[in-house]
Write a structure and sequence with these properties.
- This protein has about 110 residues and is mostly helical.
- The protein has two domains: about 35 residues, Arc Repressor Mutant, subunit A (Orthogonal Bundle); about 45 residues, no CATH class.
- Helices cover about 55% and strands about 0% of the residues.
- It is built from five helices and no strands.
- Helix 1 crosses helix 3.
Amino acid sequence: MSNKKRPHSRYDKQQLIRAVRAVVDNEMTSMESSIHFHIPESTIRSHVRNPSLHVGAGRKFYLTSKQEHYLVDLIKTLEKTGVRLTKMVLKKVIGEFINYTSTDNRFN
């Protein structure tokens, strides 16, 4: 058995959404959509058959983009006011911020 990893193609989330929408709206077949958007045909067919599939991989975000920017600004402000930002202080500030703002129960 070979230890070589199979190369995974790179396509962005929006391309996949457009490809699936084109098939669902009968603008293209899954094969045509695959060629046009450079996405595997089987991936497009899976998403057409099961619309509840999530596009994208990885873990869910704890914070929205807006909350994340706010947290970064908060940390920068703390630094400017002279608060010594050690690893433990940062962990505490970030943990409390996430507990306060996140609807995710992983931190409670």
